[in-house]
Predict the structure.
Amino acid sequence: MANGRVVQTADRTIGSRQLAAMLPAEVRARPGYRTLADAVRTLLLDGRVALHVRLPAERELAEALGASRATVTGAYDLLRESGYARSRRGSGTWTELPEGHRPVGAHMLLGTGGDHEEGIDLAIAAMGAPGGSLTEALTWAAPRLPAAAALPGYHPFGLPDLRAAVADRFTARGLPTRPDQILVTAGAQQALALVISLLCRAGDRVVTENPTYANALDAVRLARLRTASIAVSDTGWDMEVAESTLRQTAPRLTYVIPDFQNPTGALMPGEQRLRLLAATRRAGSLLVVDETIAEIALDVPAPPPLASLAPRGGADHVITIGSLSKTHWGGLRVGWVRATAKLIAELTSVRVAADMTGSVLDQLVAIPLLEGLEAGMPARLDLLRGQRAALVEALARHTPEWSWTLPPGGLSLWVDLGEPVSSALAERAAAAGVHIGRGARFGVDPGTFEHRLRIPYTLPAGQLDEAVRRLAAAFHDGVPLPPSVDRPYWVA
């Protein structure tokens, strides 16, 4: 630190060609200083350009864009005036955030998850805790807390009873698992971050689905990894392209959500799962399977773990992560990694360096919730089916020109707006009190999925109808607008 400010280092830079490639096509084609500044600010707020990174020199960026230096100078001036950049003589121009903005995850949070005094929050695809179960779990945990509190409280692998409960759950679902194959984490996001931290280095290649979970993309970008992608459409995964991509890129990691994929809701067929297992093994790629939504099976039976389909001894390259965030409550920060015992020990050493151990109280509460999952899920799923039906009815009534494929599970619809106005619509909707994840937030490449919105059905039917009514009014009232840079948000 120097005078209360972060001292930058030379390796925190973004090249002119790299930044130019991240800009939307229309900005590259006709770069004006205002549109260029808006585009850079959007990249910063979306997490595609990190904080405290040195931007390219004005002349270099002008050459990369085929623009005048005056255009870039004007854009940088606007960024500095609005608080999104600062310059020091001799050290260049660096990204930052205006005073009063709050960082979250990779970058920003616009009061989602209940911080809004008014409005409807559709940015979070998760429900509140199921009625009664959390209270019952706390009642179960309370008499056991004194015995736990008599110990120092450091359990870097996780509480033994919880590790055993997670292992038993995998075994019951068809994947024999020992407790020493489980690491308890503070949610699935920490699980993924630990895996990336241990196994990847800056510049390594990873393969993800496209679109995919936005916060997973943030973790990949934060680690400065190079991405290749597997397309996921309304009809599912293009496995021929996936096999070709894996063969050509030989990625260090492959990250997939095969069960009710976020955001599309697609469910990977068994034959494609076998092909994916074989292709990642041939490519020497570790396969990270995110099962966070696997239990949210609305129209089909809950699928078995992907790793259970591998022939004997053929799943050692599979790392499975999950959590209680979607089945129970995001405020209960309990997740896990399932892998080989050797890898679990290595991940734990990384975890200790990050946060020593998880909350003992959270883990105690999680034990009865996990053990009672089978009994508690039917009512949860019935509620979601009703809310999904209410959302579909509201969309059909208010926005008949939009389209979607009804997913067999998961927590949201991946809605096609019919035109590339997602960012503008999200801005108009925010002004009307509806906060929602625009399609581009889930894309590997900048500017993609501008014709999509992810709309969760995790709120009561009345709120969903009101939210869609406001979205419809915003959509029919003159979109597109130029995107505002003053409404950053986070999605989950």
Q: What stands out?
A: Confidence is low (pLDDT under 50) at residues 1-11, 102-117, 480-489. The chain has three domains: 16-95, 103-125+375-476, 133-373.
